Amino acid sequence: MSDLRIAVLGAGVMGADHVARITARISGARVSVVNDYLTEKAQQLAASIPGCRAVADPLEAVADVQVDAVLLASPGPAHDKQLLACLEHRKPVLCEKPLTTDVASALEIVRREAELGAPLIQVGFMRRFDHEYAALKAHIDGGGLGQPLVMHCVHRNPAVPPSFDSSMVVRDSLVHEVDVTRFLFGEEIASIQIVRPSPNPLAPQGLQDPQIAIMKTVSGRHVDVELFVTTGVAYEVRTEVVGERGSAMIGLDVGLVRTSAPGTWGGTIAPGFRERFGQAYDTEVQRWVDAVRSGVNVDGPTAWDGYAATAVCEAGVRALDSGDVVPVELARRDG
Ligand code: ISE
């Protein structure tokens, strides 16, 4: 069977990372086309990969006869049109979050995909492929905690780009805990509230950081998340689930613990999400490639998962502005 020919749309940090991953570590696939709105950037990247071309128009890249599947790592606002093109040309697509940037277009994508009768879209919530999250899920599903009741999460970034505003803490960062909640608890989120503590004096002016999100699931489970994206320290993502018969925690970064003179001990913390979740991205992309090659097309979070996360984050941004508990309204799920 010949290699899956992938078009990578978006040559920014994540796009370039995926190109390197597919080229060096993923079996059964190669990058045949690269696209970016900065044409030169795409050309430079394409030149570094044997048999790869830069295509200036993203929709032409999707339609290209030398493209079997698409990896979308373009900015969120571009996803809508690019996903519709993938559906039109029946090309399986792995779409980095968000599915789209607003609920109406996300639902439209879910419906258009459903009309085709077979799934084509997988959404890049990579934490589902991380060994620690997988172990936590297996522990919960195996009944190790009894009924899971409460989840406490910490999501800290050392820094964010200057363009990062308060709503992006919800849409870009919290979105991962939104998906983790739905993944671990297997149910939808019913409401969200966001508390605004005194801002970090070292955060850029106007950025509400930290934020504390409080979510309630449909069955009444409680989830709280400390989001703090300007810690200046390292990348810290911890998740603790408390159940009727105990609790379980992941993300302690307890790798190698060293001692050294004069009487100190310690280890290291991943500097950023690419290092912390490198294994998860590799597993995610390999499993997606295998699923597409076998004709299943999706082996992970679906378009519905992307839509549900967008709906929760949209309610989250309203909660951030108002301070209220905002209910999450989801469309009826057909099929
Ligand atoms: C970024 O976009 C990510 O997806 C990271 O996983 C997250 O930790 C970070 O806060 C986001 O900005």
UniProtKB/TrEMBL annotation:
Pfam families according to UniProt: GFO_IDH_MocA (PF01408), GFO_IDH_MocA_C (PF02894)
The enzyme's E.C. designation: 1.1.1.18
Reactions that this protein is recorded to catalyse: myo-inositol + NAD(+) = scyllo-inosose + NADH + H(+)
Residue stretches making up the Gfo/Idh/MocA-like oxidoreductase C-terminal domain: 137-327
Quaternary structure and partners: Homotetramer.
Family: Belongs to the Gfo/Idh/MocA family.
Protein's name in the database: Inositol 2-dehydrogenase
Organism: Mycolicibacterium anyangense
Gene from which this protein is expressed: iolG
